[in-house]
Amino acid sequence: MRTLRNLPAALVALLTLAAVTACGDGGGTPGTAPGHGTSGTWNVQSLTVDGKTLTAPAAAQVTFPVGEPEQATGNYGCNGFTAGITHDGATGITVKPGSSTTMACENMEFETAFAKLFTGRLTFERQPGRLTLKTPDGNTIVMSSEPRTPDAPITATMWTVTSLRSGETVSSVPAGAAGKAVFSLGADGTASGNLGCNRFSAKATVDGPRVTFGPLTTTRMACEGPQGELERKLTELFAGSPLTWSVEGGTLTLTAPDATGLTATAGSAAE
């Protein structure tokens, strides 16, 4: 019987290539399963739970395997975890939670909800740069291939008011007053800034998801037109404390009990 050692070099190379192809997966790295529709590292953007949207901490992510073993790794936002993954057809996976760390973290509401959703049978939809997982009851985990912008701190940030809210209606600040209203909240329990025309200062206490403004002390310029209109609305809003606040990336939302509020964008750090 002839051995490879006795065959022509060209034939040896051809036989070797055929063997690799036969043992491989038909694409990708030899010896691994082809990538599935979920494969890669995904940064969690948000969850929807019974109609409520929860914004993800910047650290929340999931890495799905390209091949075997099919074990995902990730972070709930603070605690790390592993999970077994079984692909079920082209648009379905089954998640079997594995191990996780058990630190007491700041945003346990999100962590608990994420862990509850990321288990069992899920369907997925993949679009360029985006992956959405859906539970059988319609809740979702929305993920992106791009890192999520870290949330700006509510204190020590200069906020510029960009829009006013009334219930579900959001409108831009009055024409001619854009960029005029700015404010910052200090870690020392104070607030200061400009209402659109007059400068102001006040006590301001941040307590969990709420911020309470004390009476405003302002300069006394007579303000008319768009700047005066904006100033009146902001004065009424701050007087309606406590306000519910939330920050997503570089956007702050303040909402009063009567559903009025504002949206502001983060600028440079306040001095």
Automatic annotation (TrEMBL):
Residues 1-24 form the signal peptide. Coiled coil: none annotated. Residues 39-141, 152-260 form the DUF306 domain. PROSITE patterns: PROKAR_LIPOPROTEIN. Gene3D superfamilies: 2.40.128.270. Residues 130-152 are annotated as: Disordered. It holds the Pfam family META. Keywords: Signal. Residues 137-147 have a biased composition (Polar residues). PANTHER family: DUF306 DOMAIN-CONTAINING PROTEIN (PTHR35535:SF2), HEAT SHOCK PROTEIN HSLJ (PTHR35535). This is META domain-containing protein.
